[in-house]
Amino acid sequence: MKLHSTFFSSPFNTVLAVFVGMSLLGGHALAQAPSAPSASSARPSPASTSPAKLVTLDRIVLTVNEEAVTRHDIESQKNTILKRMKTANVTPPPDNELEHQIIERQITEKALMQFAKETGIRVDDTMIDRAIGRVAQENNLSLDELKAALARENIPFPFYREELRRQLTLQRVREREVDSHIVVTDAEVDAYLKLVNAQTDGETEYLISHILVSIPSQATPEVVDARHARAEDILKKLNDGADFAQTAVAMSDASDALTGGTLDWRTPARLPTLFADVVRAMKKDQISNILRSPAGFHILKLNDSRSRNEPKVVEQTHARHILVRVSETVSEDDAKQKIERAAQRLEAGESFETIARLMSEDASSSRGGDLGWINPGDTVPDFERAMNALQQRKISVPIRSPFGWHLVEVLERRQQDVTAEYQHEQARQALRQRKSDEAFEDFLQQTRDRAYVEYKTGER
Predict the structure, then answer these.
(1) Three-class SS state of 389
(2) 81 vs 89, 199, 237, 293, CA distance in Å?
(3) Which of 388, 379, 399 is nearest to 339 (CA)?
């Protein structure tokens, strides 16, 4: 079944559903926010103006292409990370090692945000409003309830908005500079599925953690040798009983180091080929030898594995819709008024098919708005929620999605075995994500290497 790509969701469209905590560069939960700066750290208290008291001023620790990173920036992020580690039961590394990791991520993030600005990537207030609306909806909260929840976490709402803007900007950098260039061919998908079908135990998912000792681009042989020695030292610590997550936090150069280096459940298609070949032969809790890739030296730990061979039966929905897009030339109010006029005509007895052909701004309009059979997850969340709430042969009220305003009608539903189709699509998504992850790590490294970093005296 071929679905119309202009309004069906990509597997990489992150749902902004979590509203506390902090995301890192390699993560995908982009609605998270770090701890807000306290008023006392941002400016002196009234009492501090007394000549009898010393005033502790924030100081610049380093500059990234002349943009400052302050002591407060580092301490604020450190406090958030320590809270998250405590929640996740991860023992923090020594303070100086944790601070080194935070500084490295501050450098990379500053360089990425500067790149976004220089290349014209921006996130306007309308996009932020929609993202916040989705966060509230995903958490079953009103906007006021979301603000209250943030207040309980000591996160000022204006600060949260700007953190969302930053994270969405980083997401757009990745989408434009990396994801838009990723191609997965049918031949690659077929070859992977052929490999899976040849295995007696079918496809397996792996839960792994990893540590990366990166190699700078254009590194000399001496630098490569030094980085390999560091990897050997880390492996020795692990084999002597050091905690893997704590070691990753302290010593890994990967973008997910501060989460303990743990990846989500992944099939071999989602893992780098180098990892997949090794992990298949590992046992639970086993630690690999040092692996070499263009990015550097890797050490893996297999936390767990599980089978993915169960049949996939889903409830499919046969639906049709009318779409009025919001664009630079069509305002939000104009689009909503147009979809409301379409709803009025339907209530007056005109056929859905006729109105869709006349008014819908989607490729399905030529089919009277018919979208065919839809699997769970095929459409964007706003659309799917509204569709799932409808009874058969009922038409929705106007609903808003990232693509504009819709009217939706459910024609029928059925239970369908989609194992073969599901496996094919999952393989394509996994291969695409693997390529994206590898390319994004390269992009991060190149961006970091291009940055001019100046440490202030005594701070390095």
Answers:
(1) helix
(2) 12, 41, 23, 29
(3) 399
* DSSP per-residue codes, 350-369: --HHHHHHHH--SGGGGGTT
Backbone φ and ψ of 205, nearest 5°: -100, 145
Place of tokens 């098919």: 353
What is the token pair recorded at 55? 């005033």
Q: What percent of the chain has pLDDT over 70?
A: 85
Q: Tell me the three state secondary structure of residue 15.
A: coil
Q: What is the rounded CA–CA span in Å between residue 16 and residue 119? A: 25
CA–CA dist 218, 313 (Å, integer): 50
The contacts of residue 171 (CB under 8 Å, 6+ apart) are 14, 30
Cα–Cα distance between 392 and 319 in angstroms, integer? 9
Q: Which residues contact 56 (CB under 8 A, 6 or more apart)?
A: none
Please tell me the distance from the alpha carbon of residue 408 to that of residue 412, in angstroms, as a whole number.
12
Place of tokens 């995903």: 138
Query: Is the Cβ–Cβ distance between 271 and 280 less than 8 Å?
Result: no
Residue with tokens 């002597």: 240
Alpha helices in 178-243 (DSSP H): 186-198, 221-239
316-329 burial, b if ≥16 CB within 10 A, otherwise e? bbbbbbbbbbbeee
- Compute, in degrees rounded to 10, the torsion defined by CA atoms 297, 303, 308, 310: 180
Q: Which residue from 147, 47, 49, 67 is spatially nearest to 108, judged by alpha carbons?
A: 67
DSSP 51: T
The alpha carbon dihedral of 167, 31, 272, 198 has a sign of negative
Do the bridges between strand 67-70 and strand 204-214 make them parallel or antiparallel, or are there none, so unpaired? Answer: unpaired
Tokens of 102: 């935070």
| DSSP bridge partners of 62 | 69, 455
In single-letter form, the type of residue at position 290 comes to I
Q: Please answer whether residues 406 and 322 qualify as being in contact, where contact means their C-beta atoms are separated by less than 8 angstroms.
A: yes
**Complete DSSP assignment for 269-336:** TTS-HHHHHHHTT--TT-B---EEETTEEEEEEEEEEEE--S--EEEEEEEEEEEEE--SSS-HHHHH
Q: Is 140 helix (H, G, I), strand (E, B) or coil?
A: coil
Are 33 and 160 in contact, with CB atoms under 8 Å apart?
yes
Taking only the tens place, the pLDDT of each residue in 80-119 is 888 888 877 788 888 888 899 899 989 999 999 999 999 9
Residue 97, φ and ψ in degrees, nearest 5: -70, -40
Q: Can you give the pTM of this predicted structure?
A: 0.62
Structure tokens at 48: 């501090």
Ranges 11-20, 107-116, 352-361: which has the least confidence: 11-20
